[in-house]
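Internal ticket - ligand job 311, nicotinamide-adenine-dinucleotide:
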Amino acid sequence: MIQGTYEIFMRIAERHFNNSLKGRFILTAGLGGMGGAQPLAGRMADAVILCVEIDPERIARRLANGFLDAHAHDLASAIAMVDAARAEGRATSIGLNGNAAEVYEALLDRKIIPDVVTDQTSAHDLVYGYVPAGRSLAEVSRMRSEDPKTLMQESRATIVRHVGAMLGFKRAGAVVFDNGNLIRTQAFEGGVTNAFDIPIFTEAYLRPLFARAIGPFRWISLSNDRDDIRKIDDRLLQAFPDNHILTNWIALAREHVPFEGLPARIAWLGHGERTSLAVAVNRMVRDGALSGPIAFTRDHLDAGAMAHPNI
Ligand code: NAD
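stdout (structure tokens):
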């Protein structure tokens, strides 16, 4: 998720911002299991990223693991923190506790237009994922079992406002995209007939790479040896010095991405390049250059995901 999100931000930088997000403002929401990668990816992409999250515990978790740099106590201080970081060209990530629909609307009302807007709340699930405006987490938790029908209606009504604000940002010139959480579909079903004016990240930014057979895959040290991942990093940098996406990513990942569980790395390589790396690693295992076996896996962001119209 960190790398996928990072690559989307970098493709946006290339296409819309002269290759750099320095001093640029990304607005997003949702700091859950997957969405929690956004602040780190945004900071790695050199941007100022504001992440709205309804659950304070999710913010605390991302502050604790270093993915989030700072926590704003209210909207006014969030805006001040964003402005200060932008003025200094300082990359940073800021968490703000609140409902995304309400915060997006409040920013739009104040005519504060971010450079890039997306969202990674669990909008695909109107009962167990998304939290409607005006409801506390405790109320939502109770409604999940006692009144899921009302909860669904309220979630959809809030998503209509949420996507309405995203469309407003788009009209005002922001680069707005759907990050694979079905928010456009939910809004469309709630009556926002132009919800699909917002492009989806796959179609807008990643399909062109897939069309050139460039996609993500990952490898894991099954013997739990971090040094093996480092040696494969070195091998990659030697083997593909002209692959800018790869060399850029490996340097950043080494510096910023913590190992969680077994040491692993993900990278984007093209057709033929993936095979050549796998064969080289096989040889390194056989020759004893690595301490144990390496598992290669696909990523969920594969050709199937890429071909799906709405993911
Ligand atoms: P999650 O349920 O772990 O996290 C969602 C977060 O959104 C939670 O922390 C929740 O408190 C917060 N939230 C819900 N409603 C909110 C609201 N109105 N305002 C502010 N915060 C709100 O989910 P996840 O694993 O992080 O995934 C998020 C979404 O992204 C899902 O819809 C998922 O399907 C999608 N997804 C996309 C990709 C991709 O490739 N782009 C990959 C994985 C997941």
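Auto-summary: The two ends are 15 Å apart (CA to CA). The chain has a mean pLDDT of 95.
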